[in-house]
Amino acid sequence: MSKEYDVVVIGAGPAGYVAAIRAAQLGMNVVCIDKWLNLDDKPSLGGTCLNAGCIPSKALLESSELYHRANHEFATHGLKVGDVEMDIAQMQKRKAGVVKELTGGIASLFKANGVESLAGSGQVVDSGEVKYTSHDGDEQTIKTENIIIASGSIPVELDIAPFDGELIVDSWGALEFDEVPKKVGVIGAGYIGVELGSVWSRLGAEVTLLEAVEDFMPIADRDVAKEALKTFKKQGLDIQLGARVTSAKTNKKSVRVEYTQGDENKSETFDRLIVAVGRRPNTANLCAKGAQVELDDKGFVDTDDFYRTSLPGVYAVGDVVGNPMLAHKGMEEGVTVAEILAGQKPHVNYDAIPSVVYTTPELAWVGKSEAQVKAAGIDYRVGQIPFAANGRAKALGQQGGFVKMIADAQTDEILGVHMIGPYVSELVQEMVVAMEYKASSEDIARIMHGHPTLSETVHEAALAVDGRPIHFPPPRKKK
User: Fold this and answer.
1) DSSP 183
2) Helical axes 54-72 vs 88-113, angle rounded to 10°
3) Which of 113, 169, 425, 437 would suit a FRET pair with 186, their CA atoms being 20 to 30 Å apart?
4) Residue 83, annotated ligand binder?
5) Cis omega (within 30 of 0) on the bond before 324?
6) Which cysteines are joined by disulfide bonds (predicted)?
7) At what angle do helices 191-202 and 222-235 cross, to 10 degrees?
8) What are the respective helix, strand and coil percentages of the chain, to the nearest 5?
């Protein structure tokens, strides 16, 4: 390819496509190379997030939640709908439509911003040089001033439970079932596992999650995790903690899974087995032999504080540089590295990254957990208010869960906020903004919140940090 570029981006997932668009906005000549192929072998922009992760899973979560509510909750609202049936084919068709609109939207954004798009794989050869291989096998060398690696991550595959694409599947395969299995097993009870388990459980499957660690969702605050575990079990999810899978063997129609739990050897047979034990960096064939791009001991691309790799002119962002593997974190890194290339001085605040689990109820948090604050030796205060005290939550019929706010006892700066309840994926954003500006709990307590809204529970939690909630009894003072 005779044309030279200012920037070549490898990968068109959230980190890559955003980096490409922002670099183009800043006047750079950009090409983005992406090798994603959907199940129909057609290229599609957006990476795992839009094609096989964030977006399709949320579409199925919404459809399955509506089905569940129609069958179990509508009657309490006076809605008599009779027997409700789920058309799985239509549900999958709707999901595919949502995905197609959004991935097509990226193509439109590329065109509007002047970003060239190439379907195929990109390989770093050296500083300023990328080998592009089309899906047909044609190879070309692209010259460029800068390279941004945004190749993302892929599901971890277990040797004891290799994917076969039918009975044992990864998270993508779990989104493509064309019928509801009678029994579904899930290895891993992290956010991917509980979201996928929730989808098929709501639709009628008997779902068992096998989690190797003894604690449920260790990344979440313990109070939130404890409430979530209790709620999910009540919903029918069979969550087995400390369950270490030792083998998964398939026959024509089922999978027999053997695992240990404590001193016991146990086994279960499932119609489908979903492996959701995490993701690993997608670095296979990313760099040509001799290209000096160093990886860390876990296989992530090693970068400095400015996203520079060990090879001059080569940068890396998103999942491929490490945790947290979140689309929005990758997007902000993509914007940041593009602005760095333009001579600006942007910054990503890694202490204010929101995390969300899109189950019902939703889980969301930002900042440090109580355990992390305690481990850091910080003197702190906590305000925790249940949604049961919130008028809007009662009207919605979703009054389970709470908001927990943690603030520095000396400065009152908010250190972390943890939520479980209705639409907390939206409520947490207020606290992201607050923490970005280093707000105190008193700042939130003195801000007027609309009534009746779910956000009033955030307001009450801020008041509770100071022991003065209005709509919920304050904790009894110790004698």
Assistant:
1) E
2) 140
3) 425
4) no
5) yes
6) 49-54
7) 20
8) 35, 30, 40
Residues carrying CATH 3.50.50.60, the chain = 4-155+280-341, 168-277
Domain with CATH 3.30.390.30 in the chain: 355-465
DSSP 3-state assignment of 49?
helix
Q: Do 293 and 124 form a contact (C-beta atoms < 8 A)?
A: yes
355-465 CATH fold:
Enolase-like; domain 1 (3.30.390)
191 is in an annotated binding site: yes
Q: What is the separation of C-alpha 167 from the centre of its chain, rounded to a whole number of angstroms? A: 24
Of 418, 451, 459, 471, the catalytic one is: 451
User: Is the four-CA dihedral 300, 304, 307, 311 of positive or negative sign?
Assistant: negative
User: What one-character-per-residue DSSP string does 341-384 give?
Assistant: HTT------TTS--EEE-SSSEEEEEE--HHHHHHTT--EEEEE
Is 193 annotated in some ligand binding site?
yes
ω into 452 cis (within 30 of 0) = yes
Sign of the CA dihedral running 65, 67, 68, 73: positive
CATH of domain 168-277: 3.50.50.60
Quick check: is 451 catalytic? yes
Is residue 196 classed as helix, strand or coil in its secondary structure?
helix
Q: Is 133 left (phi over 0), alpha (psi -120 to 50) or beta?
A: beta
313 has binding-site annotation: no
Contacts of 10 (CB under 8 A, 6+ apart): 16, 33, 122, 124, 130, 147, 148, 149, 150, 151, 286
Q: Mean pLDDT, consecutive 10-residue segments, the chain of 479 residues? A: 84 98 98 96 97 97 97 93 93 97 97 98 97 96 97 97 97 97 98 98 98 97 98 98 97 96 97 97 94 94 97 98 96 98 96 98 98 98 97 96 98 98 98 98 98 98 96 68
In whole angstroms, what is the distance from residue 79 CA to residue 82 CA? 9
Distance CA 461, CA 382 (A): 8
**Binding residue per annotation — 278?**
yes
Which one, of 231, 238, 223, lies nearest residue 400 by Cα? 231
Q: Which of 234, 233, 316 is nearest to 281 (CA)?
A: 316
Q: Which CATH class is domain 4-155+280-341?
A: alpha beta
Determine if residue 194 is labeled as part of a ligand binding site.
Answer: yes
The token pair that represents 324 in the structure block = 């947290």
Beta carbons within 8 Å of 353's beta carbon, 6+ residues apart: 324, 326, 328, 329, 366
CA dihedral (360, 361, 366, 370) in degrees, to 10, reads: -130
